[in-house]
Design a protein that fits this description.
By secondary structure, the chain is α/β, with parallel strands linked by helices. Helix content is 45%, strand content 10%. The protein has 36 helices and 23 strands. A hairpin with a 4-residue loop joins β15 (554-555) and β16 (560-561).
């Protein structure tokens, strides 16, 4: 009787090497991570509490926002928005967890979030309409991991919403009522209403239904993937900013000052800033009152003192500029949380806070008001607090795109305004906090520059060796060039370009330097100065577009005609690639227009007040983010997914069909549609290529499959395939400039992905490189497809740098290293040299998973033993148990290097 064989067995029969650890003879014992340190006892208690906590929904903010909005029916939208935010912040129930020193969180729950049905609510109604006994939404089942704090199924009297959040059964009617209140009024509903009037609406719907793009970004994440700016509150205090807004309001009242379009709007914007700041002040003071209340009923003198210090800190920062490091840190944390409550923000990165907070750190250390040990513990506590943040959005975004991550990126390193190294002692402690307190948030990024101290770079390497996946390494000089190119039309200077930080996971976010004064001493601090990088075209499934070129626009998985048939014979490779370009252009042209509509509606009703008043130049102009108030507004992108899979597929087609003429395009397409005779990934329940199973008795595709696997692969310093990459990048980076955002700025190429390669791989047939149906794409953009990079990392670096990385945004590379490869001081030096080599060749980004793949496979079998296991996925780190299985399978399958020399 015929049996189903795994792919590795089939490859071994045909003497085809597949280089990853799964077919190597290695010790059965797991290789442990070399660097393991523990947080303080206080931090550990709060971290253990996090591990035991489920992500929960709190509708309190939603209720008060909606109530106030409805009360102000007919008022000016900017004022309605501000009043609604003020009411919501003012009414949030305060909560202080025993042992905390930094306080304030998104909701009264320790871990959780709340819905924003004024942005998007259809998925809430879909969930809420189900009975309490129903399971999680089906779309969430495939994109969220089943472990950790995710509530992917109903249990007891708890209902799962979006496949991630838990809601008490008795609160279900309230959630449904809130969502229904916004039907026809939300950004999502208004967007759908008006987009239906646009030509190509039917094509747009097909592009979404086939997952060629995740357009939810167009209306569910209208802010984020940007760097925050804390200058104004730190320099003037919240009350000082409030008074500044009042003064400016009085100055511009009733005046257009030559601007007949937006001049009069300044009056309403400044009034809105006043209102929102008052809401923030009430929110802070409510926590201070709670701290005083707990202080009064606490008997322990030590605990009394702790609550008194919390109260004093909050009472001061509610109005005044901070005097101490703790006050400055608490204010920065509060505003970061506040911005994440203004919108369903993903990736509102704190930025270079080690340099932002350094003035207070330096003066407190010199005066003896604090110690490095106390600061380190605060940094650890901050890691726990930020990890407790969740984003509430649709399942496609929470799971499919983000894998449950919120991308709160803290950058270290880089340069000062004068071009010297920006590293300071506080940044060493930030990295040490990442080593001692292993949490996914905030993720760290080292802005690598040749001027950075070797000692600091080795400290970052030490953090990599803990296995947490951070810091990622970004080429600082490349990034400066990226900003100078991308924002030349908006006046980007070298000084501002040196203020680079990372927005969200990997976006090179524009910023600037501003001067703060503390006790008579002046410091330049950095901060963001640009819009979100979302909102252009979100994660195009490029291998899927190529598939539709081969199938004449017909999607065999969905059973629909997506694009109009091209009906071309595609007799040359050039004709094939030209048709890919044509479908790509059609896709972008359509999606940009539809996403612009959604974003335009968002900026008219959900304009940013909180985030915008902190960034230059909104306060000086009197314009919010939706009115081109920021200094830099050309930030939106066309983000692409599956680059490695696409390039390998093009190489295989060029080689086998056009150069060697071994098969016709029809023969190859037939093999792809029939998955080369293998079962689908969904059938076997694994999304890793090496786990796929052959169908018994289906052998007619064996030869063509062998040749597809043996075709040239990216990542091996092979000019045949690398030239295809170079040509593709040269075309792509210019082609996206043809599309324009709602701000009248050309779009940029974005070449970093998050978790898209999992769900988009599921909807894609087999590809010509030998990848099988339903399995994940190659991760990142410069990573090799798992198992295909056979000549070592330096060959991969050569392949990756055949084009100019400064023509695009953050070209992303992941490497997986066995812990023994970087063991000891010698291993640390090798890892730094590996990184330095890639940066010097022109590489833009690299990040590492230092882990034994056998540990990951064991964690799939026994997740209960690995609650705190962290891995690097794309531009972010996440708990293993909270990742979906397609993403887990892809991380396991990545090539694991056992040596880096």
């Amino acid at each position: 009787m015929a049996i189903n064989r795994r792919l590795l067995e089939v490859l071994q029969e045909r003497n085809i090497a597949h280089h990853n650890k799964q077919d190597l003879k290695l010790p059965k014992t797991f290789a442990d991570r070399e660097i393991k340190k523990a947080p303080t006892a206080r931090t550990k208690k709060l971290l253990d509490l996090y591990y035991a906590t489920l992500s929960s929904i709190d509708t309190e903010f939603s209720y008060w926002y909606t109530r106030k909005w409805d009360e102000l029916e007919g008022d000016i939208p900017t004022i309605k928005r501000a009043e609604a935010l003020k009411s919501a912040f003012s009414h949030l129930t305060p909560n202080i967890i025993p042992g905390e020193k930094l306080v304030m969180q998104k909701t009264s729950f320790y871990r959780g979030s709340f819905p924003m049905p004024w942005v998007a609510g259809s998925f809430l109604l879909e969930d809420a309409a189900k009975s309490a006994k129903a399971s999680a939404v089906s779309s969430g089942d495939k994109v969220m991991g089943t472990g950790g704090g995710n509530v992917v199924n109903n249990f007891g009297k708890v209902v799962s919403v979006s496949g991630k959040f838990g809601l008490r059964e008795e609160e279900l009617p309230s959630l449904k009522k809130l969502a229904q209140n916004w039907v026809g009024k939300s950004v999502e509903d208004l967007g759908h209403k008006y987009e239906a009037l646009i030509p190509d609406y039917e094509l747009k719907q097909k592009l979404l239904s086939t997952k060629i793009s995740f357009d939810d970004n167009g209306y569910t994440l209208v802010q984020g993937r940007e760097t925050m700016n804390f200058y104004f509150p730190l320099q003037y205090g919240l009350e000082g900013v409030r008074q500044l807004a009042i003064a400016r309001k009085n100055e511009v009242a009733g005046k257009a000052d030559g601007d007949g379009v937006l001049g009069m709007d300044r009056f309403y914007y400044y009034e809105a800033v006043r209102l929102v700041i008052e809401g923030l002040q009430a929110w802070i003071l409510n926590h201070a009152k709670l701290a005083r209340k707990i202080e009064g009923r606490t008997e322990s003198p030590e605990q009394k003192q702790e609550y008194a210090e919390i109260a004093e800190c909050l009472e001061w920062i509610a109005y005044n500029k901070p005097r101490t490091f703790r006050e400055a840190f608490q204010l920065v944390h509060t505003l970061h949380i506040g911005a994440s409550n203004e919108d369903p923000i993903c990736g509102a990165a704190p930025g270079r806070i080690g340099q932002v907070l350094y003035p207070w750190f330096e003066q407190d250390i010199e005066a003896g008001r604090t110690s490095e040990a106390e600061v380190l513990e605060l940094l650890q506590l901050h890691r726990v607090k930020v990890t407790c943040m969740d984003i509430f959005a649709s399942p496609n975004i929470v799971g499919g795109a983000n894998s449950g991550n919120t991308y709160n990126n803290v950058a270290v390193g880089g340069l000062k305004k004068d071009g010297s190294s920006a590293v300071n002692r506080l940044e060493y402690l930030i990295v040490e906090a990442g080593i001692t307190c292993n949490t996914p948030q905030p993720t760290l990024t080292c802005l690598y520059d040749e001027k950075l101290p070797e000692e600091f770079l080795l400290k970052c390497v030490e953090c990599n060796k803990t296995g947490v996946g951070y810091p990622a390494w970004i080429n600082n000089r490349n990034s400066i060039d990226i900003l100078l190119k991308q924002f030349a039309e908006e006046g980007m200077t070298v000084d501002d370009a040196r203020a680079i930080a990372i927005g969200g996971c990997l976006a090179i976010a524009p910023g600037g330097f501003q001067e703060v004064e503390l006790n008579g001493k002046k410091y330049d601090i950095t901060g963001g100065a640009g819009l979100t990088s979302l909102g252009g075209v979100a994660s195009l499934a490029n291998p899927k577009i190529l598939e539709l070129v081969l199938t004449n626009g017909f999607d065999h998985k969905a059973g629909i005609q997506v694009y109009e048939p091209h009906n071309k014979k595609l007799e040359t490779y050039e004709q094939l690639f030209a048709q890919f370009q044509e479908y790509f252009d059609k896709t972008c042209s359509v999606l940009v227009r539809f996403n612009n509509i959604h974003h335009d509606i968002a900026r008219k009703n959900n304009m940013s007040i909180l985030n915008s008043f902190m960034k230059p130049d909104c306060l000086s102009k009197g314009r919010h983010n939706g009115q081109v108030g920021y200094r830099y507004n050309g930030t939106m992108m066309v983000v692409n997914c599956g680059t490695g899979t696409l390039i390998n597929s093009l190489a295989a087609i060029k080689k086998l069909v056009y150069d060697d003429k071994k098969y016709t395009l029809l023969e190859l397409t037939d093999a792809l549609v029939n998955n080369f005779g293998f079962k689908t990934a969904e059938e076997i329940g694994s999304f890793s290529l090496t786990e796929q199973q052959k169908r018994a008795g289906v052998d007619q595709y064996d030869t063509i499959y062998r040749d597809c696997l043996k075709a040239p692969k990216y990542g091996n310093d092979d000019w045949y395939v690398d030239q295809i990459l170079a040509d593709y990048e040269k075309w792509l980076c210019k082609a996206v400039h043809n599309y324009e955002s709602l701000y009248g700025r050309k779009l940029q190429a974005g070449q970093f992905i998050t978790g898209h390669h999992g769900p988009q791989g599921i909807i894609t047939l087999a590809t010509a490189d030998g990848r099988l149906s339903g399995t994940t794409y190659s991760d990142a953009s410069m990573s090799a497809y798992p198992g295909t990079d056979k000549n070592g990392p330096y060959a991969l670096f050569s392949s990756a740098t055949v084009w100019d990385h400064t023509d695009s945004q953050s070209s992303q590379m992941n490497l997986k290293l066995h812990p023994t490869a970087v063991k000891g001081q010698e291993g640390s030096s090798k890892l730094l040299e590996l990184t330095r080599s890639y940066m010097r060749k022109g590489g833009q980004h690299i990040q590492y998973n230092v882990i034994d793949s056998d540990v990951l496979k064991d964690a799939q079998k026994h997740p209960e033993k690995y609650r705190d296991l962290l891995v690097r996925v794309a531009g972010f780190t996440q708990y293993w148990c909270e990742l979906s299985k397609p993403i887990q399978d892809e991380v396991v399958a990545r090539t694991e290097y056992e040596g880096v020399s």
